[in-house]
Predict the 3D structure of the following.
Amino acid sequence: MRKRTIVKSIFLIVLLGYVLCPFRSFAQNNIDVRAQADTDRLRIGEQLKLELSATVDVNRLKEAGLQLAFPSLPDSFAHWEVVDRSKVDTSGSAREQLFRQVITLTSFDSGHWEIPSLKFELQAAAGAVDSAFTAPIGIDVDNVAVDTTKAFKPIKGVRTVAISLWESILDFLREYWPFIVTGLVLIGLIIGWFIYMRKRPAKAPAPPPVPLEAPFDKAVRQLKELAAEKVWQQGNVKEYYTRLTDVLRSYFEEQFGIAALEQTSAELLQNIKPVTILNQQREKLRNLLSLADLAKFAKLQPTPEEHEDSLQKALEIVEWTKPAAKPAETEQPAADSKS
Amino acid sequence: MENTSQDIRQLNEKIHQASAFVDLLNMELGKVIVGQRYMVERLLIGLLAQGHVLLEGVPGLAKTLSIKSLSSAINARFSRIQFTPDLLPADVIGTMIYNQQRNEFVVRRGPIFANFILADEINRAPAKVQSALLEAMQEKQVTIGDSTFKLEEPFLVLATQNPIEQEGTYTLPEAQVDRFMLKVVIGYPTKEEERHIIRQNLNPGGMAPINPVIQPSDIVEARKLVREVYMDEKIERYILDIVFATRHPEEYKLQKLKPLISYGGSPRASISLAWAAKSYAFMKRRGYVIPEDVRSICFDVMRHRVGLTYEAEAENVTSENILSEILNAVEVP
């Protein structure tokens, strides 16, 4: 009785294992993985190509909801360095497909080294469910044979490579084309601007400047206007003397560059000293300014004769300091040639 | 009431006669003070315009001698107060002291009870003492205990500031400085003047005594006349233009001064400038003010009333530079 129970249990466990592990049989029957090196001997530092391939029944893979994962090699492992990894390439029919990846390896250690067996995995959404391994590959990494009996040789010089002129030009253009294009555009713009400047229509000539009234003419005109307006006759004595002195001060400012409008009478009399022609009229100006100051600031009412005399004095000062007229430039050479 | 031409002519004559004492004073002061005419003239302007004078200059420039001589020439009372850090307001204005015999507190008047006060090195005393003096200057009266005493007219304070030493001084605040009508900066005498000073001081007979040429009452009368000096509205506008140019230089085409001025002249500056111009006209024996009077006194009235910015100080621009620019830009009537 007991024996029957044990046999039954073993049978159930085997049955259960078979039911729960369907992928094992899948992997064993439907994936063929291989690793193949292009050489079994190389010199130190040389590279070898390791081709990893897996042949899979795609339909069955899809039905089981699985994906194939290639071995993940670190950059460096057991005396080997990974130089390059190609993408996984796919080929084959709709039913059976070949997945292929080439890994470039090198080694800097001499000896007999083994590329270990690499693991391909079948992965479901929950994680890896099965795996298949490649066979390990032994590779001999040889040192460079050095003849120690011979003397050391000097380092070889730089080897020149014959490049044609055309190739040089092409290299140059390839390297510097953005600068060349920018330069050409700028040169084009400058040439265009020059052409435009030369060909554009000439500006209309500026109108001749309006002749400004000379300070002398202006002063004489303003004094005559003051007389014509009969300001003091209307009782505006203060205004009369204010305008009279303002005309003179403006004239001094414009004609002799003396800031007379911002100077008091005493300062003005002091500052005309360096101007000889004006200084010759100093006494006349002093009398005029004194009377004007009294009229402006002390409500003095000068007599009509004094009003007239003040205007006359102002005119005399302006006339005395009138700038000498320049001789006409065209007449001078003619006169010289006659003599 | 508006002045007529006739009034001004009469006033002019009156002032011409009344101001004759100015020449007498100058002659009398000239007996002991060599040079320093500018300072003496400003002292008289302050005296006639009822304004106080702040003097700035190195020691030994006859500041004390000038005011003492002026006091003697006017036959007025003079007192000198040396301002020190330990000075108390009571040391200036006076205090109440206990009289054991009469068994009561009596008033002990301070040195401020005089016609002419020399407040020497005013910036050495603490603010409390300064303000006691400045209050007396403003109010022209002093309160001790419960009693208020009017200060005797004429009352002129001449305060000095030493521009060299600044350590341990209490700089007068702008509001206090504004109470001085004039701030006069005095310089060294010329070589020739200093030669006279040496001779005068080494004279075996000593210095000539100063005789009184006028009385304090004459000054009080003269002040009334100064008030009457005619100032035309053109001059008033000129004064206002100058003061306003310190406040709003950009309105007078002086934009470049704007960043250099922190504050311009107060209305008290306008009043002081008008007063001082009238006094100056009086001293020139005229009954009316002309622009020269304003310009002559402008620097002394305005230099302590124009505040400078840090920028101006960094560029070594002084208030005198600013005032020169303003006077050269504002049109004279």
